[in-house]
Amino acid sequence: MAYFKPVTHVLFDMDGLLLNTEDLYTIGFENIASRYGKKFTFELKCKIMGQHSREFAGNIIKELDLPLTVDEFLVETRKIFAELFPQCKIMPGVEKLIKHLSKHKIPMGLATSSSKETYDMKITRHQEFFKLLPYKTYGSDPDVHRGKPNPDIFLVAAAKFPQKPAPETCLVFEDSLNGVKAAVAAGMQVVMVPDPRFDRSLAPQATLILDSMEDFRPEIFGLPRFY
Length: 227
Ligand SMILES: [Mg+2]
Fold this sequence. Notes:
InterPro entries: HAD-like_sf (IPR036412), HAD-SF_hydro_IA (IPR006439), HAD_2 (IPR041492), HAD_sf (IPR023214), PGP-like_dom2 (IPR023198). This is Pseudouridine-5'-phosphatase. It comes from Bicyclus anynana (Squinting bush brown butterfly). Pfam families: HAD_2. The protein is α/β, with parallel strands linked by helices. The chain has two domains: 9-20 and 88-221, HAD superfamily/HAD-like (Rossmann fold, 3-Layer(aba) Sandwich); 21-87, DNA polymerase, domain 1 (Orthogonal Bundle). Helices cover 38% and strands 10% of the residues. The chain is built from nine helices and six strands; from the N terminus they run E-H-H-H-H-H-E-H-H-E-H-E-H-E-E. The protein has helices at 21-35, 42-48, 53-64, 70-84, 94-103, 116-122, 127-130, 152-159, 177-185; strands at residues 9-12, 108-111, 135-137, 170-174, 189-192, 208-209. The chain has a six-stranded parallel beta sheet with strand order 3-2-1-4-5-6, with helices on both faces. It is globular and about 50 Å long. The site of magnesium ion has 9 residues, from loops.
């Protein structure tokens, strides 16, 4: 059995991990690609997951050879997402885990590549729940210079905890490979809860890979167990 080191602080990615917004991104990108007779594939999706909006826009345009500028692409996606994001749902097992850790006063933070603006859209129906994560870092944070798979966002997020925990005492939850790489580069352990279609052999660096957050047992990382 793999050896898990005890942790004191927890950081969560948001898209596809806490919220089902990755499915909504897929719907939006498929819609735009289809207008130009192109197909937005799962392989391309895996490549861009976790990136900042300007980064993923540029990569999709390049890979699919779309006749759009980054700004034009973002204007089109914004129209679609303004309708889709406020309807997003919390992923299975997430509420139970975060409420449990919150009750036990485990310091928790959010580390999302989303801008504050899109974050606000996504949490429209989940305002109270997101208050359980007091420390928040967005992709639009001026201290986050480089997107995932670079470690910036997790280092900035960990530095927001008043206790200034060492990276090895922080546990990250991620759904994307770029996010897993970012967490490992930051020196943190990372639990991956990927899309079921994801090829797990591509993420040997993940500390643990789960089918669902419902399968997570906090005690293996020294956190309070469910009872
Ligand atoms: Mg994600």
